Each structure stands twice: as C-alpha cells, then as structure tokens.
Amino acid sequence: MSDRKVAVVTGTSSGIGLHTAVGLARRDIRVVATMRDTGRAGQLLDTAGKDGVELAVRELDVTDRDARLRCLDEVVAEFGTIDILVNNAGISVAGSLEQLDDAALQKQFEVNFLGVAALTRQALGPMRRAGSGRIVTVTSNGGVIGEPFLDAYCASKFAVEGLMQSLAPVAAQFGIAVSVVEPAAVETNIVQNTDLRCLGTDPDGQYGPLTEKFLRFVAEGFGTPQSPEDAAAVVVEAATSDTPRFRWQTSEAAVESVGLSLRDMDGSTVVSATSDILR
Ligand code: NAP
Q1: Which residues line ligand 1 (CB under 6 A)?
Q2: Which of 51-55, 76-80, 224-228 has the lowest mean pLDDT?
Q3: Number of domains in the chain
Q4: Interatomic CA distance for residues 63 and 53, integer angstroms
Q5: CATH of the domain at 136
Q6: pTM for the predicted model, two decimal places
C-alpha cells in the first residue's frame, strides 16, 4: 500500500475546488477529484496536465445519497483510505426570506449543509479507524456575517460552521483535524450560477428597489475578487499544515469581515455595515 496520502475533493469542475484538487496533487497527494458531471472535467485535467500532476476523476453529486455512499466506499476500496476530505461544492440561492419558498431553502441546504454533513459523517469512519485525518470545509465570510438577500446562503454556511465547530473537539479525540476555510469574494462561476429567486418574487411590490441595490452590491463586490488559485492555496494549506487550526480566511478582505463579526458582541456593527448595502 502506498504511503502517499489520499484526498477527496468535492465540486472540482471549476473554481476553488478545481485549483484545490490540483494544488493537493502538487503536494504529492493522491487526489480523487469529484464532480457531478465528469464530462466537465476538461479544465481540471488541462490544469493538472500543465502542472505535470495526475488525479483521479469520479462522479459525485453531493445531494445524491446513494452516489455519496458508493463514491467514498469505492475510494476506500481502491485507495485503501481517506486521509483528507475537502467539502468544497457549493451553490448560492439569492433572495430575502419573503422571496424564498421552502423549496428554495431546501435546495440551498441540500448542497451546502446536508451534503457536507453526510459526506463528512461517512469519511469519519475510515479516518477514526486510522487515528488521523483532515476534514476541511469551504464555508465563506458569509458563514459568520449574514448579508441581505443572501439569507439562505449565509444560513447554510452558518449551519455548516456550527456543525464543524461542534465536531472539531470530538474528532480531535480520534486524531482528526476539522477546519473551515472562509473566502470573501473570489472570481469563480458562483455569481453567474446564483439562483436569483429575488428576481422572481416581489411581495406587495416593495422589494424591487432593494433587490436592485443588492444586485448592484454583488456586481461591485466582485470588482476586485481574489483569484481561485489564491483561495485554493489556503484550502491546501488548511488540509496539509503541520499546525492545523479550525478557522482560515483566504484573503485580507475575508480577515476583515470575519473579524468584524467575531468582535461584534451586540451585533450592531455588522447590521449597520450590512444595512449600508441597501442605502
Ligand atoms: P464554482 O466555480 O461555482 O464552484 C462550485 C462547484 O460546486 C462547481 O464545481 C459545481 O459543479 C459544484 N457543485 C454544485 N452543486 C453540486 C452538487 N450538488 N454536487 C457536487 N458538486 C456541486 O464556485 P466557487 O466559488 O469555486 O465555490 C466553491 C466554494 O467556495 C463553495 O462552497 C462556495 O460557497 C465557496 N465560496 C465562494 C466564494 C466566491 O466568491 N466565489 C466566496 C465564499 C465562499 P457544477 O460544475 O456541476 O455546477
């Protein structure tokens, strides 16, 4: 059996996940790069090829229970173990609560929370039996700051941060380090792919101007985003560091906004700052 470590990364067809998979492979880790549609593996394989590294591509929709079970079982059968799980796959559904029906909330939580929880639960077994492991989840600065019109997205990221922070001390008893990585704006497909429920519903005609301000904020916020390569480098560091820690930010912008919230004991600084988005 090889003594090279084995990593499973979700959502590697693009963005941070793609560069995390390649970055881990560059550290001589055997990477199983998963994605919902392996027909979209072209950019990942090109990037890996240019870097002179190889990785295994496997199909995985993190919302598909049977696929999750099958995928991790097959990784353990083929590679012997799972040393690192990177929960990267994520989507965003935008809308203020009155614009979000239960199906919209469910869609958001299926990927960003329930998929992460189920996959992590499954990876814990082999890691616990090995007495070591790393579970790294890409959350967001939106995992500590609730932002207008990102109610569902931020709720899912807060939830997953709560899950991981609760898990961390227990997993540590088995030699498993649990971390969250919090990017701020990163130049990926996530904005184009956002499910804009806020455009579909305008209760009593009162949300239109606010929705426009939100959309302008998103466009402006992504004027100076971090590159996905730079954000992924922090995910790789979180997954491989000799001194693992719970919380990592990927940029100064992320440090600033996460710090703002963690220091804001009565919540007024954050609500005042986020209210500015709607002025
Ligand atoms: P991205 O380029 O849109 O990547 C998201 C990835 O998740 C894609 O590969 C997508 O695959 C995959 N995905 C979506 N639903 C999935 C499912 N059900 N099963 C498996 N994979 C699925 O965006 P990104 O910015 O790199 O996002 C990566 C992570 O960073 C997310 O968790 C996101 O919330 C977080 N994040 C991003 C930013 C940002 O500004 N970009 C900021 C903070 C946090 P398909 O190609 O099949 O759609």
Answers
A1: 10-11, 13-17, 35-37, 40, 60-63, 88-91, 111, 138, 140, 183, 185-186, 188-190, 193, 228
A2: 224-228
A3: 1
A4: 29
A5: 3.40.50.720
A6: 0.98
